[in-house]
């Protein structure tokens, strides 16, 4: 009976028949199915097929968690961390993250690692924090891979190790994490591990830039303008400067203004140059301020 109710619960969810899902998941949960409890909790969270009720959702997440369901343990821990449908309690959150982490759930391993590194809900323990970050990273969890890269690059909690930083950034970059792709590009650009490799910098900056990562768009434009790692291409450089400038990157605004002033990669356009110099000057960019002064002097002299 319980298995049949679970099948009906899951089938209704797959078919997005929320009324049936609410009915059958409720019955399956009451019959003791942890998976049904978890799904019912989600229905109450979203208000699908039942009246939205975060307290009831929390009750069912906890019921499933107490039966050992790792995702339910993780969700309960998140709710305890943020006080969603239950009183905020970081120490209890850590306990539930640890239960799921010990079952191999990377999301919980990462969260638990962060708690140990910050001393939130647990005693500060760098060794345990790195242990759990590494466990999650080895399981392919992108956030943990990126965060390990940051730890080893910055050296605030562990000794600086640029090779380890590069290793973990690369693992996340391969999985299309834009921030990590930018960092891999930067490591190649600056030669943080070995000799500078502008060709590889262009490759990784491009991947991050195509995902809208502003710093990558700017750095890629610099390489394209200068012809490092790729044939010089002022027009494409202008394209990437524009992308970054429109997102508020003041260095890109300045450089785009210079391209418009010189007619390099774009048609010469003094008013466009003035526009971008003005936006760059809002960040107290002295070069942009000087450029605006020069344009004003030219206007006064030649009209």
From TrEMBL:
InterPro entries: Sel1-like, Sel1_AlgK, TPR-like_helical_dom_sf. It comes from the Bacteria. This is Sel1 repeat family protein. SMART domains: SEL1. It comes from Spiribacter salilacus. Signal peptide: none annotated. Coiled coil: none annotated.
């Amino acid at each position: 009976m319980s298995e049949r109710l679970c099948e009906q619960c899951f089938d209704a969810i797959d078919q997005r028949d929320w009324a049936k899902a609410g009915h059958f998941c409720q019955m399956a949960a009451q019959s003791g199915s942890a998976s049904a409890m978890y799904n019912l909790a989600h229905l109450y969270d979203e208000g699908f097929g039942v009246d939205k009720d975060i307290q009831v959702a929390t009750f069912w997440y906890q019921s499933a968690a107490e039966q050992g369901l790792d995702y339910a343990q993780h969700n309960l821990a998140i709710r305890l961390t943020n006080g969603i449908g239950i009183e905020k309690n970081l120490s209890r959150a850590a306990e539930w993250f640890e239960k799921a982490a010990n079952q191999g759930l990377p999301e919980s391993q990462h969260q638990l690692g962060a708690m140990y590194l910050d001393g939130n809900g647990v005693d500060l323990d760098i060794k345990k924090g790195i242990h759990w970050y590494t466990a999650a990273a080895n399981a392919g969890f992108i956030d943990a891979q990126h965060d390990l890269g940051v730890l080893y690059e910055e050296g605030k909690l562990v000794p600086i190790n640029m090779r380890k930083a590069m290793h973990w950034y690369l693992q996340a970059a391969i999985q299309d994490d834009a921030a990590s792709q930018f960092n891999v590009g930067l490591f190649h650009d600056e030669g943080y591990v070995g000799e500078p490799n502008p060709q590889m910098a262009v490759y990784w900056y491009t991947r991050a830039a195509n995902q809208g990562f502003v710093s990558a768009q700017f750095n890629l434009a610099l390489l394209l303008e200068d012809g490092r790692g790729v044939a010089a291409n002022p027009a494409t450089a202008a394209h990437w400067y524009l992308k970054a400038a429109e997102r508020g990157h003041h260095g890109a605004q300045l450089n785009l203004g210079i391209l418009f002033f010189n007619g390099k990669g774009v048609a010469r356009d003094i008013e466009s140059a003035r526009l971008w110099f003005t936006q760059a000057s809002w960040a107290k960019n002295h070069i942009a301020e000087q450029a605006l002064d020069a344009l004003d002097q030219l206007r006064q002299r030649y009209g």
